[in-house]
Request: fold
Amino acid sequence: DIVLTQSPGTLSLSPGDTAFLSCRASQSVVSNYLAWYQQKPGQAPRLLIYAASSRAVDIPDRFSGSGSGTDFTLTISRLEPDDFGLFFCQHYEPSSPWAFGQGTKVEIK
Amino acid sequence: DVQLVQSGAEVKKPGESLNISCQTSGYSFTSYWIGWVRQTPGKGLEWMGIISPRGSDSRPSPPFQGHVALSVDTSTRTAHLQWNSLGASDTAMYYCVLLMSPKAPASYWGHGSRVTVST
Reply:
């Protein structure tokens, strides 16, 4: 089964900074079936990125995804106060039970 | 607008059965698969499984196979997640989600149903 490991556990940043969130897979994620979600306290997650680098509907271009194979990155440019929260990666590789990473918390410094 | 309205919080005892629901609206019902995701403080987010819009293809994730049942009522556009016998480890927040296909991420999320299993 594919296991996703996210790093760092917590990022402390200021508005205007750029955040780099890593998601590493234990095996190659074929066809880049990799998504990123944001979750704010008391809310359900929302989809940010799918297919490793495609933005979901209504997601600003400050959010970008990159990577392939086993290494993926979510980049958040020009951080805004509303961007802070918990971020998860998830693979939907058909040959392996779907799984989420454990999450990276982005907090205001 | 797409809406997923989930049933309310439940408090149950170990061994009891439970059915939680997710009523959908605002889209063509046959256009999306429905999935369920569990969230706990200890294990984070976990995929429980997905089901086709007509309910003919149910794919529970291996850790949940045999413990939960996924179903769909097309007449009411409602998905259901059912347990015959709850355990304390089923205490969690449960989200229903919509997927464009069985090879797609969760595009839309319900607000969640909190389940507490305790003596």
